Amino acid sequence: PQLVVAQAKSVLEDQPVAAIKLGLLGNIAVGEAVAALLRDWPAIPLVVDPVLVAGGGGALAEASLTRTYLERLFPLAALVTPNALESRRLAPAATDAAGRAATLLDAGCHHVLLKGADEDTPEVLNTLFSADGAQKEFRWPRLSGSYHGSGCTLASAIAALLANGVPMHEAVSDAQRFTWDALQQGWRTGKRQAIPG
């Protein structure tokens, strides 16, 4: 945790930072340390991709990290981008997507993009829920195959657009197009999942 914070401080104190994207944190110690650091930088838009599970289904983070996300990181976030499985782990009492989004918004973030690529549906449905009650659906043709890094690509693209002053709803829309195009051009280095191209 100390190394992660030291690296982040080196960048934050050295140059202008226009957006921050969090991905895999791995354990509660890193999550708590990052949350403590980011409280000192509230003006920078924060995109939190709560990576809890690998594309293949394996756990990537301690179960206790969900509390850190909900209580420490989401209140700092402009946007949270869980996939369906992650949203169910973060809001286990909710019975549908709207309920899961409401739970995450109640934790304090401004927007939640619930991603549906990991659902068994003919097309991918991503829905942006906002604290002001707005809701927008995005439907994408489901690509064949399995991809590694699609959620990370999407969250990073949104953060990059926010860093360039693009409003949230437009950033979310444009980043999905960028990600879909990157996945359509994805390639495999071996027998595993394809990576964005």
Task: Give structural notes.
This protein is α/β, with parallel strands linked by helices. 40% of the residues lie in helices and 14% in strands. It is built from seven helices and six strands. Strands 1-2-3-4-5-6 form a six-stranded mixed β-sheet, sandwiched between helices. Helix 2 runs parallel beside helix 3. The model has no long low-confidence stretch (mean pLDDT 90).
Radius of gyration: 16 Å
Major β-sheet, in short? 6 strands, mixed
The N- to C-terminal Cα distance equals 32 Å
Total of DSSP H or I helical runs spanning 4+ residues: 7
- Residue-averaged pLDDT: 90
Number of strands: 6
Structural key phrases:
7 helices, about 200 residues, 6-stranded mixed β-sheet, globular, alpha/beta
Brief account:
This protein has 197 residues and is an alpha/beta fold.
What topology emerges from the helices and strands here?
Layout: H1 2-12, E1 20-22, H2 28-38, E2 46-48, H3 65-73, E3 79-80, H4 84-90, H5 97-106, E4 111-114, E5 123-130, E6 135-141, H6 150-163, H7 168-184
Parallel strand pairs: 1-2, 2-3, 3-4
Antiparallel strand pairs: 4-5, 5-6
Helix pairs in contact: 1-2, 2-3, 4-5, 6-7
